[in-house]
UniProtKB/TrEMBL annotation:
<dbReference type="InterPro" id="IPR000998">
    <property type="entry name" value="MAM_dom"/>
</dbReference>
<keyword id="KW-0732">Signal</keyword>
<comment type="similarity">
    <text>Belongs to the protein-tyrosine phosphatase family. Receptor class 2B subfamily.</text>
</comment>
<keyword id="KW-0378">Hydrolase</keyword>
<dbReference type="InterPro" id="IPR013098">
    <property type="entry name" value="Ig_I-set"/>
</dbReference>
<dbReference type="Pfam" id="PF00629">
    <property type="entry name" value="MAM"/>
</dbReference>
<keyword id="KW-0325">Glycoprotein</keyword>
<feature type="domain" description="Fibronectin type-III">
    <location>
        <begin position="282"/>
        <end position="377"/>
    </location>
</feature>
<dbReference type="GO" id="GO:0016020">
    <property type="term" value="C:membrane"/>
</dbReference>
<feature type="domain" description="MAM">
    <location>
        <begin position="22"/>
        <end position="182"/>
    </location>
</feature>
<dbReference type="InterPro" id="IPR013320">
    <property type="entry name" value="ConA-like_dom_sf"/>
</dbReference>
<dbReference type="InterPro" id="IPR036179">
    <property type="entry name" value="Ig-like_dom_sf"/>
</dbReference>
<keyword id="KW-0812">Transmembrane</keyword>
<keyword id="KW-0904">Protein phosphatase</keyword>
<dbReference type="GO" id="GO:0004725">
    <property type="term" value="F:protein tyrosine phosphatase activity"/>
</dbReference>
<dbReference type="InterPro" id="IPR036116">
    <property type="entry name" value="FN3_sf"/>
</dbReference>
<dbReference type="InterPro" id="IPR003961">
    <property type="entry name" value="FN3_dom"/>
</dbReference>
Length: 487
């Protein structure tokens, strides 16, 4: 029986510990509550004690509380009271009383509630109220979702108005480790990772009565507020709020949290990180390992990158430098061979890298600009055509030799001829032609003589010869030569 009683007592104490983490009625000031005045604000909250005389108007509430007398300070000056830090994985409900009062109904200032994480910068308030609310206490709640190991700190801030007339007061602050009755609270907000240039979406799930009718926004750690894009009811006590950030860049990478606010209170989620990944790009161009008339062998050279991994896809993008088309091939090895290329043609080759997620393909890396070798000429030139025959010269022409025949932009055309003249004497010669002028006159020939002609096409990779053509020059009364076999 004693053991059962001890167990029950321990359970009761544990329940109290986690249901009521802390409270402060300010009977003995903020010190016993472990509340601290901000060292970097403009002035301090004033403690009013029920046991000590004060000079406040009689219509203000009796008791002990913290107050700001606006007339004692300049417009825009602020004071901040910091609650103890919270670290547990939980949703805390901060329940408190407040009033803003002036005799003539003027605005005494603004009461802001801030939630700072890991002693970082102060973002915009998650709840605030301004203007004269009357001389009676009002209640409000803050639902603050916290997640270890981050440290969360609630701060009560009073800011004096231009009127400098009136009072701002807070009292009876309770920190409870269960959801609030009046304010919705958020489920845990997760990190969002996107690639640069894409849209990022945060979805906040909130639970509470009439939550969908509250004011909603996404708050960035630096204070920027992003309006809600869409809300959707999940059931009568739960809804989803969607926030969109358009075409994010590295400058948008930060911590974000969801905030909801109503007249009865406010809820704030944990900070979640927007992670913006830069699609990868190779630092160096591909390396050339081998070259032929119709292929290029390259090493991707993509180990050093600008941007973020992991790399899930490597592609080779290439094109003729003089063309507009582009081809892209996926590559799963360190080297790659580009086939079916045109001979003696300059190509630009770049590597594309892709990381996970939409928009994960980075810009192409620096290009490798290289050229394929010439190929052996496609075929022998067609038979020479005889344009004119005279006694001492022959004019010949031939088909225009395009790239599809020469297979190289650098080539030579040569005409070779020979004939026999008297006593089995022979004469032979080869003449280099102008490749762009497919016509030539072979002169200084003897009359009435059989002359053998052929054309030779050469480029750095090979040569092709035409068939021989035998032409007899005309007579002119001079001794003639006789055709013999060509050696």
């Amino acid at each position: 029986y004693i053991g059962q009683m001890a167990t029950a007592l321990a359970f009761t104490l544990l329940t109290l510990k986690f249901s009521l983490l802390g409270g402060c009625t300010f009977d003995d000031g903020p010190g016993p509550c472990d509340y601290h005045q901000d060292l970097y604000d403009d002035f301090d909250w004033v403690h009013v004690s029920a046991q000590e005389p004060h000079y406040l108007p009689p219509e203000l509430p009796q008791g002990s509380y913290m107050i700001v007398i606006s007339s004692d300070h300049d417009p825009g000056e602020k004071t901040r009271l910091q609650l103890p830090a919270m670290k547990e994985n939980d949703t805390h409900c901060i329940d408190f009383s407040y009033l803003l009062y002036s005799k003539n109904g003027a605005n005494p200032g603004t009461l802001n509630i801030l939630v700072r994480v890991n002693k970082g910068p102060l973002a915009n308030p998650i709840w605030n109220i301004t203007g004269c609310t009357g001389k009676d206490w009002l209640r409000a709640e803050l639902a603050v979702s916290t997640f270890w190991p981050n440290e969360y700190q609630v701060i009560f801030e009073a800011e004096v108005s231009d009127g400098r007339n009136g009072y701002i007061a807070i009292d009876d602050i309770q920190v409870l480790s269960y959801p609030c009755d009046k304010s919705p609270h958020f489920l845990r907000l997760g990190d969002v990772e996107v690639n640069a240039g894409q849209n990022a979406t945060f979805q906040c799930i909130a639970t509470g009565r009439d939550a969908v009718n509250n004011k909603l926004w996404l708050q960035r750690r630096n204070g920027e507020d992003i309006p809600v894009a869409q809300t959707k009811n999940i059931n009568h006590r739960r809804f989803a709020a969607t926030f969109k950030l358009q075409e994010v860049t590295k400058t948008d990478q930060d911590l974000y949290r969801c905030v909801t606010q109503s007249e009865r209170g406010s809820g704030v989620s944990n900070f979640a990180q927007l992670i913006v990944r830069e699609p990868p790009r190779p630092i160096a161009p591909p390396q050339l390992l081998g070259v032929g008339p119709t292929y290029l062998l390259i090493q991707l050279n993509a180990n050093s990158i600008i941007g973020d991994g992991p790399i899930i896809l490597k592609e080779v993008e290439y094109r003729m430098t003089s063309g507009t088309w582009t081809e892209t091939h996926a590559v799963n090895a360190p080297t790659y061979k580009l086939w079916h290329l045109d001979p003696d043609t300059e190509y630009e080759i770049r590597v594309l890298l892709t990381r996970p997620g939409e928009g994960g393909t980075g810009q192409p890396g620096p290009p490798l600009i290289t050229r394929t070798k010439c190929a052996e000429p496609m075929r022998t030139p067609k038979t020479l055509k005889i344009a004119e025959i005279q006694a001492r010269h022959i004019a010949v022409d031939w088909e225009s030799l395009g790239y599809n025949i020469t297979r190289c932009h650098t080539f030579n055309v040569t005409i070779c001829y020979h004939y026999f003249c008297g006593h089995n004497e022979s004469k032979a010669d080869c003449l280099d032609m102008d490749p762009k002028a497919p016509q030539h006159v072979v002169d200084h020939l003897p009359p009435y003589t059989n002359v053998s002609l052929k054309m030779i096409l050469t480029n750095p990779e090979g040569r092709k010869e035409s068939e021989e053509t035998i032409i007899q020059t005309d007579e002119d009364g001079m001794p003639k030569c006789y055709y013999g076999n060509y050696v």
